[in-house]
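User: what does the whole thing look like in 3D?
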Amino acid sequence: DAGVTQSPTHLIKTRGQQVTLRCSPKSGHDTVSWYQQALGQGPQFIFQYYEEEERQRGNFPDRFSGHQFPNYSSELNVNALLLGDSALYLCASSVRGQGSYGYTFGSGTRLTVV
Amino acid sequence: GQQVMQIPQYQHVQEGEDFTTYCNSSTTLSNIQWYKQRPGGHPVFLIQLVKSGEVKKQKRLTFQFGEAKKNSSLHITATQTTDVGTYFCASNSNSGYALNFGKGTSLLVTP
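Assistant: Here's the predicted 3D structure for the full assembly of 225 residues, as C-alpha cells:
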C-alpha cells in the first residue's frame, strides 16, 4: 500500500479531449505534487499544490491545470489532449512540500491518448 | 532547475555481483534523493543525502554524496534478483519544491 491513492489506474482518451486525474495524499501529508513519466524516462515535475494554491510549476503548458481541495486531495486536468501526453502520471505527497523525508508516490494513472 | 545526469543507463549483472550507479551535476546540489522503481511500479523513496561527503548505508546499499555536492553514487553489494528495477537520483530545485529526476539506471539481475 503506497499510502497515496490515485484514480483511475488506466485511461484511454482521444486527441482533443479533456481528462481529470485524482489523487488522495498519504495520511498526515498536506502537499501534493504531480509528475509526468514518459516510457523509459524519469518523472518530470508538473506542479505542486500546498494550502490549495499552486506553489511551483514546471515546464508544462497551460493545458495542464490543477486544484487542491481543503482535505488536501488534488486533481490534475489536461485539456486538448495530444498524442504526446500519453504517459504515466504520478502524484506525490509530502509534508509542507519540501520532501525532507522523501516524497511518497502513488501507483500512477496510465494515460493513453489515441 | 538543477539537472542531474545518471550513468549508466542500463546494467545487467549476475546475481551476487556488485552494482554502482552514478549521478552527476554541473552545479552544486542542495540535496540528493534516491528512489527505486520496480518494473510496472512507482518510485519508492530510499534515502536523502544533504551534507558534503555524506555516506549512508542501508543493508547492502551504500549511498555517497560528493565533497563538492555535485555528484552521488549508489552501490549495491552482492546483488539479488529482488534488486531489479530502475534507480533514480533526484534533487530539489532552488525553491525546494520541485524534484528534478535523472533518467535513471535500469538494473537487471540474472540468477
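In plain terms: The mean pLDDT of chain B is 95. The radius of gyration of chain B is 13 Å.
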